[in-house]
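Weekly sync, protein design subgroup
Attendees: M.S., D.O., the rotation student, P.L. (late)

Item 1: inverse folding check
M.S. brought a backbone from last month's batch and wanted to see whether the design step gives back something sensible before we order anything. D.O. pointed out we never logged the input encoding, so this time it goes straight into the notes. Structure tokens as presented (266 positions):
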């Protein structure tokens, strides 16, 4: 599967891409002027945007470690992977269980160009990368099944992905299709943007993304909770990503406009 999909030469540098904007927020170098321009516009509106990106990344690491340590899940499907920022999910999971198998999925050719960094895992485990669009869940499942056994538990990771997919564009169908394919004992990990805490800043950020031709959707606590219907939320349920099993005090005490949660499938 590695390296399949669009060639890296197809990178569109004329419009911003969420993965590259996120990379800029995290202090990365794998972005283009158009991404930096949008990221700086958003930061001018909400100076906490880079802090939120860091909090979201930390949530992913805590959730991944918790699942590897406490549930015994040894397979992960991470959709909307983004540009590698260490430690990556496979490094977290394989540090707990070296035989863990991880499939990463993203649709940005620049992530494909860095897939090698995503694939440096343990000899006992497997890490693979699929170049695919999150809006094709059945195609993702088919290709991921070359590495993952969907008759056994899989942790499905949708980190900072669904706020780029509106309800009317099939966000719930996307999640439903993926979760339906998971065996009992599997998990859903997701985070997404909310306007519950700083509505004016978030709305201005949505407008900035729209000017860059990127769809962005904010959801309430109840709307985020809907994605977990039929699953068993683990404590503390749906919470600000900085408040989900924190290991340290948040950077400045300000709200983080992202909800996150982990749920198990019975």
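Designed sequence read out in the meeting:
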């Amino acid at each position: 599967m590695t390296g399949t999909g669009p060639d890296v030469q197809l990178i569109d540098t004329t419009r911003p891409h969420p993965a590259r904007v996120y990379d800029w927020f995290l202090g990365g170098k794998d972005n283009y002027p158009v991404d930096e321009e949008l990221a700086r516009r958003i930061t001018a509106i909400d100076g906490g945007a880079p802090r939120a990106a860091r909090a979201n990344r930390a949530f992913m690491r805590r959730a991944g470690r918790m699942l590897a340590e406490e549930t015994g899940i040894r397979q992960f499907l991470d959709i909307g992977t983004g540009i590698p920022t260490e430690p990556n999910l496979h490094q977290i999971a394989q540090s707990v269980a070296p035989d863990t198998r991880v499939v990463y999925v993203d649709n940005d050719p620049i992530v494909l160009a860095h897939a090698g960094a995503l694939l440096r895992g343990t000899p006992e485990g497997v890490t693979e990368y699929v170049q695919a669009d999150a809006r094709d869940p059945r195609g993702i499942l088919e290709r991921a099944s070359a590495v993952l056994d969907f008759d056994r538990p899989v942790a499905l990771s949708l980190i900072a992905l669904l706020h780029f997919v509106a309800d009317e564009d099939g966000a719930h169908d996307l999640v439903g299709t993926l979760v339906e394919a998971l065996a009992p004992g599997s998990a859903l990990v997701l985070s997404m943007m909310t306007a519950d805490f700083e509505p004016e800043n978030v709305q201005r950020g949505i407008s900035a993304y729209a000017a860059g031709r990127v769809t962005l959707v904010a959801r309430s606590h109840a709307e985020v909770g809907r994605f977990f219907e039929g699953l068993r939320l683990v404590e503390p349920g749906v919470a600000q990503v900085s408040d989900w099993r924190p290991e340290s005090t948040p950077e400045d005490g300000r709200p983080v406009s992202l909800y996150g949660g982990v749920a198990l499938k019975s």
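Discussion: The beta strands are 75-79, 101-106, 126-131, 155-159, 187-193, 232-233, 239-240, 258-264. The mean pLDDT is 89.
Action: P.L. to compare against the previous round before Friday.
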